[in-house]
Amino acid sequence: MTPTMPVDLPVIAKAYDFLIWTSRHVARFPRLHRFNVGERMERHLYGILEGLLRAKFTRDRVPLLRQVNLDLEVLRFQFRAAKDLKCLPIESYGHAAGVVNEIGQMVGGWLKSSRGPSA
Fold it and tell me: Lower CB density within 10 Å: C or N end of the chain?
């Protein structure tokens, strides 16, 4: 994925690009699953992006980053469900799982640095 907008934090750019990628895939889900599985996935991704943006502009970012981590865990299972329901090809699921893990590692690093040396 290439960044589609100039953002100074790579995790925000990654989350934005992943949101766009996911939206394009959800649009191809069978109608039966597009609005329950797909819409929930997109909603979680919007929440993740919003949480990252809020964390960027606040000093007390630890609770926000913890919530983003929780939302990423929920998203992992939503992508797994989409794969198991045959909404998402296995290759796309593999890509999505890798991106979710990468975003999780980036958020984890940001969380660790936000706690300071005493944590």
Answer: C
